């Protein structure tokens, strides 16, 4: 997906919010904004929004001397939702279609995205989870995902945000119950960016104890394949199926030439929702078309 004009102020505002939450002085924020604007003036807008956001956070980190500006938020949502992991598992186990329930919970967790919303509370997330039962998928290719997994040997699951990965963990465990011979790997970001999950975050929720975790080697809030490590590219292109979580992964991969990618996310901005012809905040399970 290319970067639309409407994406630019959203990206800049997110950068400003990040600098302010780190208590940067106004003169430093002004320098950051000026450098971001200069950077944008040299970019090809045919590249995806996550490719541009990576530069924004490198500029912020350079000026403010930080490596992980959202670490406190990431740790909070990981730990708070991890405390409730067994409750969420019970919701899945008690449902007549446990695969679909786990899938919908994983999508619902995608609400925890500070790249889209600057303020998200634990209460709003739990309210959102409570509404899953009555929320339909506006695009629903979940049955096709299930059927393809039946005949697959390998799955690469692309993670997205912290907190959300607790629901991904539950969904992965459900997939393993349904398809015990399927070999699954879970991919995380190579560097901290916004509240996206890294190797450290995966370990903090003990995800590494149930399946192999790999880094994509990049600090974009998506999967910008040309910037990823060779290890990740090998896993990506050799996997029979890819489950791609989050809007950033959709934005960066929806036009890639690879079969059997299933995008699971919430359409959290008008540009993406309009492109998919769905209402904003819709639940999506969409197979890529190549």
Please describe what this structure looks like.
The protein is α/β, with parallel strands linked by helices and 290 residues long. It has 13 helices and seven strands. It has helices at 7-21, 26-41, 49-64, 71-83, 85-93, 98-108, 122-130, 142-150, 164-178, 199-204, 230-238, 247-253, 270-276; strands at residues 137-140, 154-158, 183-188, 213-215, 241-245, 261-267, 282-287. A seven-stranded mixed beta sheet has the order 1-7-6-5-2-3-4, sandwiched between helices. α10 (199-204) links the parallel β3 (183-188) and β4. The longest helix is centred in the first third of the chain and has 16 residues, at 26-41. It is globular.
């Amino acid at each position: 997906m290319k970067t639309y004009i409407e994406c630019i102020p959203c990206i800049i505002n997110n950068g400003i919010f990040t600098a302010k939450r780190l208590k940067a002085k106004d003169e430093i924020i002004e320098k950051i904004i000026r450098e971001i604007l200069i950077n944008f003036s040299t970019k090809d807008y045919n590249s995806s929004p996550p490719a541009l956001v990576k530069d924004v956070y490198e500029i912020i980190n350079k000026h403010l001397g930080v490596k992980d500006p959202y670490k406190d938020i990431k740790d909070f949502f990981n730990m708070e939702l991890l405390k409730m992991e067994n409750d969420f598992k019970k919701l899945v186990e008690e449902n007549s279609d446990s695969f679909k329930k786990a899938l919908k919970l994983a999508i619902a967790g995608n609400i925890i995205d500070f790249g889209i919303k600057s303020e998200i509370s634990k209460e709003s997330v739990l309210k959102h989870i409570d509404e899953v039962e009555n929320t339909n998928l506006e695009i629903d290719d979940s049955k096709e995902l299930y059927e393809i997994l039946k005949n697959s040997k390998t799955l690469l699951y692309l993670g997205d945000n912290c907190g959300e990965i607790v629901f991904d963990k539950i969904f992965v465990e459900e997939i393993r119950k349904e398809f015990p011979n399927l070999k699954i790997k879970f991919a995380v970001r190579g560097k901290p960016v916004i509240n996206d999950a890294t190797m450290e975050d995966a370990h903090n929720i003990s995800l590494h104890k149930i399946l192999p975790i790999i880094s994509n080697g990049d600090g974009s809030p998506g999967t910008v394949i040309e910037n990823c490590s060779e290890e990740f590219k090998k896993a990506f292109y050799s996997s029979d199926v890819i489950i791609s979580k989050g809007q950033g992964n959709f934005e960066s991969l929806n036009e890639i030439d690879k079969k059997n990618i299933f995008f699971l996310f919430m359409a959290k901005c008008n540009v993406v929702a309009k492109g998919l012809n769905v209402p904003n905040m819709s639940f999506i399970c969409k197979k890529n078309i190549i």
